[in-house]
């Protein structure tokens, strides 16, 4: 009998090469939402790809705040295509056809280019893998649906909102300071409303918005979202028609590129009188409006002119360590010598209420410059260590939950559209539709609130990380500073506390607190 020997392939015992899988997504144009959205999707795709032993993560490509209607305006998508052509990617995953391309022609063109490179694309929502397709017909149909759906959803949503504006049935999702929401209706929140009345009364006496804000901060009155009062936030209240019980709808609008703008007459606005209970009378509201207009005319400045809002680098950023009031700038005169100095506004009015005396502006500038030079010198030891600590903090559980919540919200939106379609065709009675629709609305509001809370919890740390990376980049390239740079102070300092006339504590936007001597 002949003996036959089997010769195995040379690579029979070699481990199978893993596919390099990249993910593509789009994120919000809002910086705060963008950071959370990006982290959420990155965590999702890293976990999703890691769950497949035959895959390895090849990167996340994302475009920021773009409508996606034209591929030429999506640099990350184009970069991903370039990396595919350079052999860096074997497989692509993306959320849906509408996220990959809302234009049928572009979608087919991109998929064809990738198929020529033998790189499949997997669309999660549609459960569609272009690597297993025998024809482009199904892809063409699905992408056409995605294109028309995105236009339809946008227009239907706008029509629905406009219709609710016109018939007065619009439900608020956000309550201004002084109000709270009850079933979508504005209800006076008395503990805040008393401060709204205080603001209007102070304005009637001739006090400026900056003076009113300073008084509120001195009294430690809590502002919206636990922030501090500013001239801008006071003026917003004084000009907001909701405090006299009226509502002006559509103050902003979204264009066809999904970008939001202030409405200066580009689209219709709707004004409803006596929409809800007023906090101040119409007479008081109109009188305050006249005072503001008269003041602007006297000083020849228009609304929104930042020249008078932040004249100096330290404006609105220096806080008294003794009483918590803001410092104000003044010119001191000693003999023939004149020099700018900053003084606690409470001490300036009444020295018995606060003993904190003035500090020279030049000394404050020197303290900041000294701090920056120390950071430039010890960048690796100080800043890099802080960055390592921030980036090791895990948000995976919250990011994972955000992903689950957003997917559920999408499912509920789809469910609502199906309900509307069924009722329109006469297969569902109005009473059942209303009941089901209300259940969806309640659950949607609940999930939206949970998602926003999760985002706010992690957004602070993400923002600090971005600010810290920016500071590291600057200190890594910069030489020692010889003079004070107001732009750098604005860029990196959130606020500074004057602990005493000899000590300044600088609170940086990245979360660091640095004490410097005031000489």
Automatic annotation (TrEMBL):
Residues 176-298 form the Recombinase domain. It holds the Pfam family Zn_ribbon_recom. InterPro entries: DNA_bind_recomb_sf, DNA_bind_recombinase_dom, Resolv_N, Resolvase-like_N_sf, SSR_resolvase, Zn_ribbon_recom_dom. GO terms for molecular function: DNA binding; DNA strand exchange activity. Gene3D superfamilies: Putative Large Serine Recombinase, Chain B, Domain 2, Resolvase, N-terminal catalytic domain. Residues 20-168 form the Resolvase/invertase-type recombinase catalytic domain. Residues 402-457 form a coiled coil. Keywords: Coiled coil. This is Site-specific DNA recombinase. It comes from Ruminobacter amylophilus.
